[in-house]
Design a protein that fits this description.
Elements lengths: L1 H6 L3 E6 L9 H7 L4 H23 L4 E8 L5 H13 L6 E6 L12 E5 L3 E7 L5 E7 L2 H15 L3 E2 L7
Parallel strand pairs: 1-2, 2-3
Antiparallel strand pairs: 1-4, 3-7, 4-5, 5-6
Helix pairs in contact: 2-3, 3-4
């Protein structure tokens, strides 16, 4: 994935549609076992730092980096942690992050899986198992798939709440 971010010239978008992603990282597991968010952030630091550096190097080149998350409410424990950790794991690198509760997405047509899109063209389809663990990816330059992803992302992005405006229930 690093090379895809390096090639991006204008934009990177990421649409997340799941309410949990596997067992999460070590910070999440520690938080679930009672650690504070600050302690979880310290535990996550070695794992999150390369991501933050990658995003920062992308945004510093003038590439817009946006992530939209469609979520169920009440939110899962994973989403509650993800929201709390977004500051140090996403915003710190320059990502823009928005949240859209699933009931507000009911009229929006979205693909059946998460994706990354680069410069409104190349799509990286992301697959997970039913438990939310990684199950592979497929790269596509199909113009119809690219248009589907661009349209879906913008349709979610526009009504979604900015990270600072959304408080999970």
């Amino acid at each position: 994935m690093t090379e895809l971010f390096a090639k991006a010239q204008r934009s990177v978008t990421h649409l997340e549609l799941r309410d949990t992603y596997g067992s999460g990282g070590p910070g999440y597991r520690a938080w679930r076992e009672g650690a504070s968010l600050e302690a979880a952030a310290q535990i996550d630091a070695p794992f999150v730092a390369p991501w933050v550096a990658l995003v920062r190097s992308t945004t510093e080149r003038g590439v817009t980096f946006r992530r939209a998350r469609v979520i169920s409410e009440p939110v899962t424990k994973y989403i509650r942690f993800e929201h709390a950790a977004t500051g140090y794991s996403n915003l710190a690198g320059g990502e823009q992050v928005r949240w859209l509760p699933r009931p507000q997405a009911r009229g929006i047509a979205v693909p059946g899986c998460d994706f990354w899109q680069f410069d409104d063209g190349l799509v990286c389809w992301i697959f997970q198992t039913g438990e939310g663990d990684p199950a592979g990816y497929v790269l596509s330059e199909d113009p119809d798939e690219a248009k589907l992803c661009s349209t879906a992302f913008e349709s979610v992005w526009e009504p979604a709440f900015d990270h600072s405006e959304y408080e999970p229930s």
